[in-house]
Design a protein that fits this description.
With about 90 residues, the protein is α+β, with helices and mostly antiparallel strands. It has two domains: about 1-60, Pemi-like Protein 1, Chain: D (Ribbon); about 60-89. Helix content is about 50%, strand content about 15%. The protein has three helices and two strands; from the N terminus they run αββαα. It has helices at about 20-25, 45-55, 65-85, and strands at about 30-35, 40-45. β1 and β2 (about 40-45) form a beta hairpin. The longest helix has 24 residues, at about 65-85. The chain is elongated. The termini are far apart.
């Protein structure tokens, strides 16, 4: 792991040194995730987060939205059947 000393600038700004930005492929305007671990400040590329999530949840075969749509369709069928049963009385 590479260690560098940097100074906290005006309004709490931190400049990531050019050689670090280049080695990580960071571009101006790119979003990073900041989180704290005890007394440490961790900056992480958001595409790394997406990769972690995909590897963690990639085994799920059906999308959540498809599952919700399927559940809702089944609810509608039950509701229509109940209404039909009431009208036939």
């Amino acid at each position: 792991m590479q260690e560098l000393n940097i100074a906290l600038g005006q309004n709490g700004r931190v400049v990531i040194p050019a050689k670090v930005r280049k080695s990580l492929g960071l571009k101006q305007g790119q979003h990073l995730r900041l989180h704290l671990e005890g007394q440490k400040i961790i900056l992480e590329k958001t595409d790394g987060i997406i990769h972690k999530l995909q590897s963690r949840f990639g085994s799920i075969k059906q999308s959540l939205s498809e599952e919700l749509i399927q559940d809702r369709r089944q609810e509608v069928i039950r509701e229509l059947a109940q209404e039909s049963g009431r009208k036939n009385r």
